[in-house]
Structure formats: C-alpha cells, structure tokens
Amino acid sequence: MTQTARDTIQRYFDAFNAGDTGGMLACLAPDVAHHVNEGHVREGREKFAQFCAHMSRCYRENLTDMVIFVNDSGTRAAAEYIVNGTYLETDDGLPEAHGQTYRLPAGSFFSLQDGQITRVVTYYNLADWIGQVSK
C-alpha cells in the first residue's frame, strides 16, 4: 500500500515537472478535492485542469529537493519541496509580472484511495513569494 501511494505521488510530481497536465489528472480521482493556498476548494478533475491551465499561463515552475512521506496504510501522504519558478503573466490581485524568478519552500498533503489522489492541499508562504517578485 505505501509503495503504491508513494508511486502515485511521484508520478503526480513527475508530470508536474514535465508540464504534463494529463499525467497529473491521471493520478487524480474524478471527484478530487483541490485545496489551494489562499484560495477556494475546487472539486473534480475538470476544475483542477482549469486551474493548471491558468497556472501554466502565469507561471513556469519546477520542483526540486522533494521528500515524500506516506503513512503505513497508504491513504495519506505529504511532500516537501522547493518551487523554482518564473512569473510569466500577471495574475489577478498580485504584483505585475515581468519575468521575475523565485525560489520558495512549499508542501503538499494528499489523501489517497484505490491508487488515486482524492485530496490535494498545497501550502507556501504567499508573503515570501510576493516579496521575491516585487523586487
């Protein structure tokens, strides 16, 4: 169970780093609950795909220094990593984009069932990010 969960989370992040939204979606349950830092909960793969399209337009990111943790039953997981990014297009309510780069510690928490991710929660320090792109 724990290896299946770890493999699912690794596939999810490998797809993220490859810019492969379809690969990320394949790791998710149809009714996935996506909890975004400083945002609203989105439910379902379609809303997750819309979020990914928005993020790809505004940001180019690669995750490094990844550590994945999984509970004994394989139903919960967490990952800690560094977000290495470039701010491409101004996002609503945020500073103006002009190609600024940033490096930001972040983490994600997951619930899993039957080899699929049913919940994704992502956290990072928004004030730190704003400080980095406002320079």
What does this structure look like?
Helices cover 33% and strands 42% of the residues. Strands 2-1-6-5-4-3 form a 6-stranded mixed beta sheet. The chain is built from 4 helices and 6 strands; from the N terminus they run H-H-E-E-H-E-E-E-E-H. It has one domain: Nuclear Transport Factor 2, Chain: A (Roll).
Compact overview of the structure:
This protein has 4 helices and 6 strands. It is α+β, with helices and mostly antiparallel strands.
Low-confidence stretches: none
N-to-C CA distance: 45 Å
User: What proportion of the residues form beta strands (DSSP E)?
Assistant: 35-45%
| Helix-strand sequence | HHEEHEEEEH
The beta-strand count equals 6
Mean pLDDT score: 96
Provide the CATH architecture.
Roll
State the helicity in percent bands: 25-40%
Number of spatially distinct domains: 1
Class from secondary-structure proportions: alpha+beta
Main beta-sheet strand count, sense and barrel state = 6 strands, mixed
- Put simply, the count of helices is 4
Strand sequence of the main sheet, in spatial order?
Answer: 2-1-6-5-4-3
Annotated CATH topology: Nuclear Transport Factor 2, Chain: A
Instruction: Specify Rg, calculated over alpha carbons.
Output: 15 Å
Tell me, what's the shape?
globular
